[in-house]
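Is 2-phosphoglycolic acid placement plausible here? Inputs below.
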Amino acid sequence: MTTPRPLIAGNWKMNGLEVALDEARAVAAAVDAQPPAARVALCPPATLVHRMAQALVGGGVAVGGQDCRAEASGAFTGDVSAEMLADCGATLVILGHSERRAGYDETDALVAAKTLAALRAGLEPIICVGETLAEREAARTLEIVTGQVRGSLPPELAGKAFAVAYEPVWAIGTGLTPTLAQIEEVHVAIRAVLVERFGAEGAGVPILYGGSVKPSNAAEILAVKDVGGALVGGASLKAEDFLGIIARA
Ligand code: PGA
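Reply from A.M.:
I modeled the complex. C-alpha cells:
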C-alpha cells in the first residue's frame, strides 16, 4: 500500500479580511517555487473562499471551506451549502470541527449528513474528531474518538478522497499538545476503525493531527505513526509560520 502525500491544511476560523489574501499569496508563491512533500490547503472564512480561490488558481495550494449545510439550497438564512463552496472554487471542506460540535450542538449524525453533502458537491471532506479534557481525564479518549469516527463517517465515503483530523479539544488554541505517545495511541485507534470500515482503502486515509501545531513541534508530530498531516489553526494565519510547518512534512 503506497502512503499518500501528507496533507497540511490551514484553518483560518473567523479570521481574515481581504488584506489577509497577501498571506495566502505568499504561501502559494513559496509552494509553487519549491513544491513540498505535502499537499497544502487553506480554509479561509466563507467570505474569502472565492477571492482566495481566484488568487491561487492553478497553483499548488487548494482552498477549502470550514463548514457547510447538509442541504444543497433552501430557506436556511445565513448558511452556506457544499455546492456554494464548490461554486466558489473550494475543493475541500472541514466538517465537525469541535468549535462547531460544541458551539452549534453538531452531532455525529449531522456531521455525517454534511459529509454526504460534501461528496455530493465533489468536495474532499476533512472530518474532525477529538476528546475534551474532562473526557481524557476520565480515560474515555479512545471510546469518544472512535465513537465519533464511527458516527461521523458515512459508508458512502468508500472510494472517495477524504481525511480525518484528530484534534483534542484541550489542545486547540491553547499551546498544549498531547505527548507523541498519546497522539500515536489515538491515531492507531482511528486507523483501526478506518480499516474495519473501509478495508485496505482505510489504511491510506490521511489522519491529520490538529491542536497547537507550530513550526517548532511539527516535525516530531508529523513523524508519529499514522499521522498523515496536520490541521493548523493559529499558525496558518501567517505565511512564515505555515510554511515552517509545511517544510517539516
Ligand atoms: P490551533 O487550532 O492550531 O490554533 O490550535 C487548530 C484547529 O482548531 O484546527
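Short version: The chain is about 40% helix and 15% strand.
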